Amino acid sequence: MDIMLFHSAFGLRPAVHAAADRLRAAGHEVRVPDLFDGQTADSTEEGRDIKDRIGQEELLRRAIGAAAPYSDAGLVYAGFSLGGAIAQNLALADDKARGLLLLHGTSDIAEGTAVDGLPVQLHVADPDPFEPDDWLNSWYLRMQRAGADVEVHRYAGAGHLYTDPELPDHDEDAAEQTWRVALAFLDTL
User: Does the predicted TM-score (pTM) go above 0.85?
Assistant: First the structure.
């Protein structure tokens, strides 16, 4: 499976490379574009500042540019938090997308979006201050109306970016369970 994996607002950090290596060890081809041009953040606020300086449109342009050379083969789009939102936007616009793996983040869904049974899996903390219950319920219903085949996995007590061992949110048990479920999902695509 060809996977395009997008980093969070913390940038392309070692945890993203470790995740890509885990996916590669399971037999997948994984690309991890650096949408922040080498910049990384030490806090959520610093990450937001980098994202805001670059701008949402430019981040999407960079993501599209990174994915375009590989999209004809049918990519699985994946991402962490901000990267999940970017991955979602690309997957919903790519009629050859084979799947969407969201870790810690979602994005709004444009009216009229339609996909034909796109497999989608979301892993999110419960509760998550960036993905509150009302938002997730609405997101789930809109994804289903768009035609996606959606699974949501919630992890009680975990912090927002619980898969990153270098962050205070890290939850080893939740992270390992996430990777087991995600790898099984990718095997079905």
Answer: yes
